Structure formats: structure tokens, C-alpha cells
Model the fold of this input.
Amino acid sequence: MKNSRDIRIRRAMRTRVRLKKLASGQPRLSVFRSNKYIYAQLIDDATGKTLAQASSMEKDVAKKAKASGNINAATEVGALIAERAKSAGVKAVVFDRGGYIYHGRVKALAEAARDGGLQF
Done:
């Protein structure tokens, strides 16, 4: 019997295959959500390298958001990843929600990244 983690990973891989076909050379904004933190990273799939990353574990995010695993922290991480993407010269990305439902923290991160100037 498969547990919920295995099911999420399978769903994420299924989505990731479609995203790589649609990406057309754009980096992928990947999101990982745990119970305590939220992480985002820009990945260039052509070279297999991470261009930028942000998480709610960082001290400047922790100061702005009182808790590290809520919507406020996800909003801060989204704004931070957008800022770091601009400094890396990335304007357009493909959003990889990592098998999670586009709701709550994942949605807050995506909207903050859009407000920060990323296009997806």
C-alpha cells in the first residue's frame, strides 16, 4: 500500500514531465512544502543547475513572518525568489507545484512571485 508521500511524488513526476515539454528552455520554479517550512528554487533543466533558491528557514524571512510554515512566510519566500530571479537574469519561468494542490501556501508563494515580476 502506498502512503501519501509516494502518491505525491508520483503526481509530481507526472506533472514535471509535462512541464519539461512545455518549458521551451525556461527555468522551472519548483516548490517544496513541509509542515514546518516552505522552499522554492529556480532550476535550469537543460544544465541541471539551480539558479536561485529561497526558503522560510532564512533569517530575513523568519524576521518578517512570525511563523515559518504559514501563508505569510510563503508570501515572503515568493517575493524573495522573484528578487533573486531578477538578479540572476530570469524573467519567465514554468511553475512546478511539486504535486501539491494550488491552494494555501503554494498559491501564496506563486502570487508573491508574480507580484515580484516573474512571469508564468
Q: What stands out?
A: The chain has one domain: 4-115.
